């Protein structure tokens, strides 16, 4: 499996979630980039977020967002 542009867009959305609380969600507005809107819809269809335009992370979404953010931290840290 390769990192496709669509997958990278989904990872980007997951990176915006605050993992320290389940009380904060993400809202993707109708005026957002169409690629971001589509990525958010895909995350909803995969069961990772609660609303088609963002919302909160599901338990599976929290796990995915945690891994995505951990990977981002590892890949961007200085060696």
Distance between the terminal alpha carbons, to the nearest Å?
27 Å
Radius of gyration: 12 Å
Give the count of helical stretches: 3
Q: What proportion strand?
A: 5-15%
- What letter string, H or E per element, gives the SSE order? HEHEEH
Strand order of the largest sheet: 1-3-2
- Give the fraction of residues assigned to helices: 40-55%
The overall pLDDT average reads 94
Q: Count all strands and give the number.
A: 3
Q: Give the structural class.
A: mainly alpha
Largest sheet: 3 strands, antiparallel
Outline type: globular
Low-pLDDT runs of 5+ residues are none
What is the element layout, followed by pairings?
Layout: H1 5-14, E1 26-27, H2 34-45, E2 49-51, E3 54-57, H3 59-76
Antiparallel strand pairs: 1-3, 2-3
What features would you describe in this structure?
The protein is mainly α and 79 residues long. It has one domain (5-76). The protein has 3 helices and 3 strands, in the order αβαββα. The radius of gyration is 12 Å and the shape is globular. The model has no long low-confidence stretch (mean pLDDT 94).
